[in-house]
Amino acid sequence: MRRVLICDDDVTISEVVAIILVDSNLAEVYTIPDCDNIIEKIEELQPSLIFMDNKIPTHGGVVATQTIKNHPVHKSIPVVYFTANQDIDQLAENAGADYTLAKPFSITELEEVVNKAFNVAKA
Q1: What are the residue ranges spanned by the domains of the chain?
Q2: Residue 92, SS3?
Q3: The model's pTM
Q4: What is the pLDDT of residue 122?
Q5: How many CA within 13 A on the CB side of residue 44?
Q6: Which of 2, 11, 79, 104 could make an SS bond with 48 (beta carbons 3.0 to 4.6 A apart)?
Q7: Are 95 and 23 in contact (CB under 8 A)?
Q8: 48: DSSP letter
Q9: Cα 72 from chain centroid?
Q10: How many other CB atoms are there within 10 angstroms of residue 114's CB atom?
Q11: 73: DSSP letter
């Protein structure tokens, strides 16, 4: 089964996303409340997809995503930038994220972005 890593300091959001993905049999889910040592966490958990919040401690989602996308081994892991910020598309572009998911989102929107990322990742 594929693994999803949710990087969000909002425990409620992380739990909701995890429940939806697990109940839909889309993925095994891991959550972290900060982006400290993000590369080490990725190496430990080996996710197939990462959800990255914008305002996550300590460095923020843009820097964390850039760190992932600049890493020679982990840069191919799709990153979904998800935030309630109005400028989500610009933030995601600056970060180098592959997808966006605006908060609040519907279950359908969540499932669509996950399926899209997994289908691209399969190719």
Answers
A1: 3-122
A2: helix
A3: 0.95
A4: 60
A5: 9
A6: 2
A7: no
A8: S
A9: 18
A10: 25
A11: T
